[in-house]
Amino acid sequence: MTSGPLEGDRPCRTAVPDAAPPPGPAPGTGTAAVPPAPTGPPVLAEITPDPIDASGHERFVARGAAGAVVSFRGVVRDHDRGRSVRGLEYTAHPTASRVLGEILAEALAGGRIRAAAASHRVGLLAVGDTAFAVAVSGTHRQEAFDAAGRIVDEAKRRLPVWKRQLFTDGTQEWVRCP
After folding, report:
1. Closest Cα partner for 132 from 74, 77, 90?
2. In angstroms, rounded to a whole number, what is the distance separating the alpha carbons of residues 140 and 111?
3. Rounded to an integer, what distance in angstroms lies between the CA atom of residue 178 and that of residue 176?
4. What is the pTM of this model?
5. Which of 64, 116, 146, 163 is the most exposed place for a label (fewest CB within 10 A)?
6. Share of the chain above pLDDT 90, in %
7. Structure confidence at residue 176 (pLDDT)
8. Does 9 have pLDDT greater than 50?
9. CATH fold of the domain at 41-162
């Protein structure tokens, strides 16, 4: 087992044999209970074992008063730092949906954002699967771009979700774990 820097992330271990995922429902799944203020924008924040419908997020945030809908999809790629990846497994802390809701609320505070939605997958994902999706609607495009960027950046920094990369050579590596 080895550890070291990983482009700003902390690996927990590398080059360990594959292990089966734990049985039962994925921990940390759920939808955040983030009721908007009476005048606040609608918010959807979820951690889910189910495939993410990014176009559904766009439909959720669409509003007549919005001049822009900005969306982002983080997808599983087939490589990382020169190594071939066959898939990923994400695990979440039970507070993850609440933290994601807080991140959305903070990104939208004081802005002219009409609505926001974000979902993060947990469980085993294949190359090409959507791991994280964000959609934001705003009065103008720059506000929507800025809010979506803040959500993605803060989720990367604070969301208690950990990634296990599964390499084609049979090794694995945990990333962003305590």
Report:
1. 74
2. 11
3. 7
4. 0.80
5. 64
6. 70
7. 73
8. no
9. Aldehyde Oxidoreductase; domain 3 (3.90.1170)
